[in-house]
Design a protein that fits this description.
Layout (H helix, E strand, L loop, with lengths): L1 H4 L4 E2 L8 E11 L5 E11 L9 E4 L4 E7 L2 E2 L3 E4 L2 E4 L5 E10 L9 E5 L2 E5 L18 E11 L5 E4 L2 E7 L4 E13 L5 E4 L2 E8 L5 E8 L8 H18 L7 E7 L6 E2 L4 E5 L12 H16 L8 E2 L5 H21 L4 H23 L11 E2 L8 H34 L3 E2 L1 H11 L9 H4 L5 E9 L4 E9 L5 H4 L8 E8 L22 E5 L3 E6 L7 E4 L8 E3 L4 H10 L3 H25 L7 H12 L5 H8 L4 H7 L5 H18 L1 H10 L10 H17 L6 H13 L3 H16 L5 H13 L4 H12 L9 H9 L9 H14 L1 H4 L5 H14 L3 H8 L10 H17 L3 H11 L1
Parallel strand pairs: 2-12, 18-19, 19-21, 22-24, 25-31
Antiparallel strand pairs: 1-23, 2-3, 3-9, 4-8, 5-6, 5-9, 7-8, 10-11, 11-16, 12-15, 13-16, 14-15, 17-18, 20-21, 25-26, 26-29, 27-28, 27-30
Helix pairs in contact: 2-3, 3-4, 4-5, 4-6, 5-6, 6-7, 10-11, 10-12, 11-13, 11-15, 13-17, 14-15, 16-17, 17-19, 18-19, 19-20, 21-23, 25-26, 25-27, 26-28, 27-28
The structure holds tryptophan and zinc ion (ZN).
The site of zinc ion has 4 residues, from helix 4.
Length: about 900
């Protein structure tokens, strides 16, 4: 394997407990932007459960070592080196005091202690704490922390850290201090501090057991008017975790802080969550419905980590999905409950569909490329590269399968046992599985394969109806198809797949389900089959008529289902399936099949045509008033270009774009009157409401507008979009109108209306960075044309005064949007997109390796593309491979080229 040749591969199999443990940590910070002095006093002892080591090896990076003392006396045998500090021949149990200096002002990696907008912030997961002080920076070393912060009172009036505030006061020379104590043991990755000019929205709430809690959302003063939704989301999260899992907030105070320079979404530091502003700040003028929903989800996610991640944490980083997969599952369930409660299946399905779309588009693609890895990876070079769709989203699906197998109550019993056994510990994915198995009295040995096998499983289905015997047999076969090499080597045997199925009769109603050997039909018309063998046949009896199967209802497992539905059968399922997820799924299958056929024709220059029956199936959804607007919007949205390209034998983004545009135009022109009616009918006049219902109306209305912008004569759409832009009282409608104007004008190389709206948008929101991010992103993802390629617009925008490569949100809004969300333009035949990509990866590598490595991933599927594109991508990858310095980017490009 390539792995053995690469140095510095970390392997799961090599796990060993730490030779020393650290029980308490007292940190003192003298915060100065260019030169922060950190004094760290630790109680250290030998680990009785580890093999003996005479030296203590502490991790440290980018630190200036000042001094070491053991039990109060200077210690001479301390040697600082590139990776940390070695202390020779230390005692068995001692107090260690270390002093070091770091430079937050120059820290553009946004890992460790850094300055953003004149304030101090930290980011320690996964291995950032070692950039603050020398430490055993691994999650199985847990300590209690006391933190003293000292800084200029005028420049840094607010001083925050984890836990409870013990004391604060003034110091000489205009300085002041605050001392914080976190009563809970925690690994170093959960440490945080914040210092600066911030203000908070505050709320006091009572937790389930009647204790009063102080909640704060800290932001820069001009953002205080955008904190209400985050606070409401936090309160809802607290209530939900009590109600659904019996888990209470364990601190007297819980803080959220927003920062505009941040590598990811947010971070669950104990009692002091630090958030990307994108996932905190919202009001109707600046944030879309999607932003509101994302904020609710991320606030929930970080809050839920307090139990799944913090109270019970990971033994090592290979177990990352233990906390991330589980916490994504929890935030998905939270959002579903907020939208539809426990019983509104249609509203819950909306959330489920959105989550599955992300999984299929992003995680399935990851599984098909060189970065394919199991939910619990076996090795890594840089752990930051393994905060992936597989660990998070597939990990969440794996957790969801326990709930599908055992029901909500059985899942809850498993969670209760997990906390009973492991509260306060650093544990493994196996520990979680065992708790679920033991609480439900089931052997889950086979289920372990979901953690150890990479690749997307394929389930092919054969059915047979025996009219004379009234028997219907369903034969399931599982395998991985032609999985990527990285995935293939992990595959050992069949999985335990909970396969939910229903049978639908001629009238569209569900048939009763009785499996062979059972005495009567079950109450439910959906059955979860325990599919455990490579091939297995399930026979239903007393089936009075030949049914149509509804397969993998509610997407009961993260697999690809292969079954030969006819177009008519899919249209029937789209109209009748009682499972709302599968109704949507039928439409997607129908559309995908048509689009792939058309893409194949486009690739070979054959004229395109679309059957009237497909248009009719979509028309029925569009005009079916019994369906919720949000469902109709999801059902009428075609599969993305990236997803479609992925399904081709050879990915051809230009052909996919041509095919998808052809269908969009055809649906626009054929159903013009209906789109116009829907656009009119689903307006939401009056004050903006952030409810799921109102958001559903806006989503459907704006989808209609986007189709209308495809009309052969777009004049009417331009009029509607301009009017909507001018009248909008919320960002959802305003940005949708701007997008429609841009796309309506694309074929003609732009329009006056589009340019005016763009200019207005910029002026109106000049002081709102998150909205200016949208301004960049809308332009980077717009449709292009031969006379107006988007790369030229992107290049110009790179020189715009508001562009800043150092700010990850801004870099993502322009560069990532173009390279990862505008495939038809990015994959231009002339290779201009790839040359741009290479330049930006190299530039970012010197500033922020984590962000650079994310961008680097946008070429990893290069082998699957058409020959010309493949050659262009390989050349760009080789250029990057020859120039980058960081371990982060090197791992990505070397795996891609291997
Ligand atoms: N643990 C965080 C979450 O998912 C994500 C995270 C991991 C992160 N590493 C990070 C956030 C680095 C910011 C920077 O909730
Ligand atoms: Zn998380």
């Amino acid at each position: 394997m390539a792995d053995t040749a690469t140095p510095n591969v970390i392997r799961r199999a090599d796990y060993a407990p730490p030779a020393f443990l650290i029980d308490t940590v007292a940190l003192e910070f003298d915060l100065v932007p260019e030169r922060t002095v950190v004094r760290n006093t630790m109680r250290v002892r030998r680990n009785p459960d580890a093999s003996h080591a005479s030296n203590l090896e502490l991790m440290g990076e980018q630190l200036e070592f000042v001094s070491a003392a053991i039990d109060g006396a200077a210690f001479a045998n301390a040697h600082a080196h590139e990776h940390g500090l070695t202390l020779d021949n230390v005692p068995d149990n001692f107090e260690l005091t270390l002093t070091s200096i770091c430079n937050p002002a120059e820290n553009t990696t946004l890992s460790g202690l850094y300055v953003s907008g004149g304030n101090f912030f930290t980011q320690c997961e996964a291995e950032g704490f070692r950039r603050i002080t020398y430490f055993l920076d691994r999650p199985d070393v847990m300590a209690t922390f006391t933190v003293t912060l000292r800084a200029s009172k005028a420049d840094y009036p607010v001083l925050l850290s984890n836990g409870n505030l013990l004391e604060e006061g003034d110091l000489p020379d205009g300085r002041h201090f605050a001392r914080w104590e976190d009563p809970f043991r925690k690994p170093s990755y959960l440490f945080a501090l914040v210092a600066g000019k911030l203000v908070a929205l505050e709320e006091r709430v009572k937790s389930g057991s009647g204790k009063e809690k102080l909640l704060q959302v800290w932001v820069e003063p001009h953002d205080l008017d955008k904190t209400r939704h985050a606070m409401d989301s936090l309160i809802n999260s607290i209530r939900w975790d009590e109600a659904r899992f019996g888990l209470e907030l364990d601190l007297d105070r819980f803080m959220i802080v927003a920062v505009s320079d941040f590598n990811m979404g947010a971070m669950e530091n104990k009692g002091l969550n630090i958030f990307n502003t994108k996932y905190v700040l919202a009001n109707p003028e600046t944030a879309t419905d999607t932003d509101f929903a994302n904020i609710e989800a991320v606030v929930g996610h970080e809050y839920f980590h307090n139990w799944t991640g913090n109270r019970v944490t990971c033994r090592d980083w290979f177990q990352l999905s233990l906390k991330e997969g589980l916490t994504v599952f929890r935030d998905q369930e939270f959002s579903a409950d907020m939208a539809g409660g426990a019983t509104d299946e249609a509203a819950r399905a909306t959330k489920r569909i959105e989550d599955v779309r992300v999984l299929r588009q992003m995680q399935f693609a990851e599984d098909a490329g060189p970065m394919a890895h199991p939910v619990r990876p076996e090795s890594y070079v840089e752990i930051n590269n393994f905060y992936t769709m597989t660990v998070y989203e597939k990990g969440s699906e794996v957790v969801r399968m326990y709930q599908t197998l055992f029901g909500r109550d059985g899942f809850r019993k498993g969670m209760d046992l997990y906390f009973k056994r492991h509260d306060g510990q650093a544990v493994t994915c196996d520990d979680f599985r065992h708790a679920l198995a033991d609480a439900n009295g089931r052997d889950l040995a086979q289920f372990e394969r979901w953690y150890s096998q990479a690749g997307t499983p394929r389930v092919s289905v054969r059915t047979k109806y025996d009219a004379a015997q009234q028997r219907y047999s369903v034969t399931l076969t599982q395998g991985y198809g032609d999985a990527a090499p990285a995935a293939r080597e992990t595959q050992k045997g069949p999985l335990l797949i909970p396969f939910a199925i229903g049978l639908i009769g001629k009238d569209g109603a569900d048939l009763p389900l009785q499996l062979e050997g059972e005495t009567k039909a079950s109450n439910s018309t959906t059955r979860v089959l325990d599919f455990t063998q490579t091939e297995q046949t399930f026979t239903f009896v007393n089936v009075a008529q030949e049914p149509l199967p509804s397969l993998l209802r509610n997407f009961s497992a993260p697999v690809i289902v292969e079954y030969d539905y006819s177009a008519d059968q899919l249209a029937f399922l789209l109209a009748h399936d009682s499972d709302p997820f599968n109704r949507w799924e039928a439409g997607q299958r129908l559309a995908t099949r048509e689009l792939l056929t058309l893409a194949g024709r486009a690739a070979t220059g054959v004229p395109l045509q679309l059957d009237d029956s497909v248009v009719a199936a979509f028309a029925r959804v569009l005009t079916d008033e019994s369906l919720s607007p949000s469902f109709r919007e999801l059902a009428l949205m075609l599969p993305s270009e990236a997803y479609l390209a992925e399904q081709m034998a050879e990915s051809n983004p230009a052909a996919v774009h041509a095919a998808r545009q052809f269908v969009r135009k055809r649906l626009a022109n054929a159903l013009r009157k209906d789109w116009l009616a829907v656009h009119e009918k689903h307006r939401t006049p009056g004050a903006y409401e952030a409810t799921p219902e109102a958001a559903g109306h806006r989503a459907l209305k704006n989808l209609a507008l986007s189709y209308l912008a495809e009309l052969d004569d777009p004049a009417e759409a331009v009029r509607l979009a301009s009017a909507q832009y001018d009248a909008a009282n919320n960002m959802t409608d305003r940005s949708a109108a701007l997008s429609a104007l841009l796309n309506a004008a694309a074929a003609n190389g732009g329009s006056v209306e589009a340019q005016q709206a763009l200019d207005d948008f910029y002026r109106r929101f000049e002081k709102e960075p998150l909205v200016i991010d949208k301004w960049f992103a809308l332009q980077a993802t717009q449709r292009g044309s031969a006379q107006r390629p988007v790369i030229e617009i992107v290049r110009k925008l790179m020189a715009h005064p508001a562009f800043n490569l150092k700010n990850p949100n801004r870099a993502r809004s322009l560069i990532f949007s173009f390279c990862a969300a505008n495939p038809a333009q990015f994959h231009a035949e002339d290779g201009s997109g790839y040359a741009f990509w290479a330049d930006q990866v190299i530039a970012l590598d010197a500033i922020n390796p984590q962000v650079a490595a994310r961008l680097a991933r946008s070429l990893e599927l290069w082998r699957r593309f058409t020959p010309t594109l493949r050659d262009g991508m390989r050349a760009a990858l080789e250029k990057v491979a020859s120039q980058v310095k960081s371990r982060d980017v090197r791992e990505i490009v070397e795996k891609a080229l291997a």
